[in-house]
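FIELD: query
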Amino acid sequence: MARSLKEHATKYDPLSITLPWEDPFSEERLTVPLIFTTTRRGAIKRATFDDKSWRPAVKAAGIVPTRSTGMHALRHYYASALLDAGESIKALASYLGHSDPGFTLRVYTHLMPASEERTRRAIDDLFQEPPSTG
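FIELD: result
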């Protein structure tokens, strides 16, 4: 995947584009480099991407398009992979563009790995006898 993205970025320079952030009717704008653009070098609308690219690819792979196979599911997969690897909620919130880590925690807490064993191990390690110095 990384090699394909690098080849794409080499062939098609990222396009800096200024877009509304969060609310399309807000005055707030953010300039970002886009790796993928429309044929007219504009931002790809989510609905257009879903209808023209994502769902046809899902169908071609022999998968029934549903909410659980939608593009947004990849965001949840990304979040769960990072949480499983031990990434902090604060860092995950930043990566997902959430300004409030509490929101991220409320949305993704069910994906966090169970910590009972990790907790037991930490306390066991704390109270182990120190190695003898004999």
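FIELD: remark
The chain has a mean pLDDT of 86.
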